[in-house]
Amino acid sequence: MLQDRNQRIEAVLAGAKAAGRLAIDLLLPPRCLACGVLVTEASSICPDCWSSLDFITKPYCASCGYPFEYEVGEAAVCAGCEASPPRFDRARAAMRYNEASKPLLLRLKHADKAELAPVLVRFMARAGQELLGSADVIAPVPLHRWRLLRRRYNQSALLAKSLAAEAGRPFLPELLVRRRNTPPQGQLGREGRKRNVAGAFAVAPTHAEAVVGRRVLLVDDVMTSGATANACAVVLKRAGAEEVMLLTVARVVLA
Prior knowledge:
Blueprint: H1 2-27, H2 47-52, H3 79-83, E1 90-96, H4 101-110, H5 116-127, H6 129-134, E2 137-140, H7 145-151, H8 155-167, E3 176-178, H9 190-197, E4 201-203, E5 215-223, H10 227-238, E6 243-251
Parallel strand pairs: 1-6, 2-5, 5-6
Antiparallel strand pairs: 3-4
């Protein structure tokens, strides 16, 4: 009898929850997370935007994950990594940074659209399955405290927290600290980006022991030149990290 009673209660609660969702949808119809047009399901992407997303799949550079046009071997690296090997060990991204993915990232980053994080994490988990499987700890690329105060949250930390929960790995949101409030990288070239973040990061003293001999997975929203990931990898390796990996939602791919 107790079991039947519990089942009835669960059915009532499920019905109430469904009715609540319906009421919300009537008042606030669900919209595409990218372009804002009306869609049939909440937290979804319309067919037009979905078809424009360019997901990155093999073949790609074994080091930085840069996509190749044709198969050249599992261990092949791109010309950029050949000429200047990155300080991190491996990097992967779920999709190319283009006119379709850009609105998703800007909404997450600047428009308080935290509901985007679970959707993007699903894409990231698929692209970074091998990294998640080998990571010992997961941490976000940090914001400077003044920028965090203005923005109120670190979008990379939202993504990293969800990924850590999905992978069953420790989440260390304050593993790294940003010592300098560096200018935005957007308008800088490759060398300018490198100079901008040089010496900007440090391992938090309270987490120093968590790095030694560990494989650290860094999480960020976009990878452009890799300068930020390199700067983070340098301090993590100096602190004793065995391996430093990077997983992002998107990455810039030159035409």
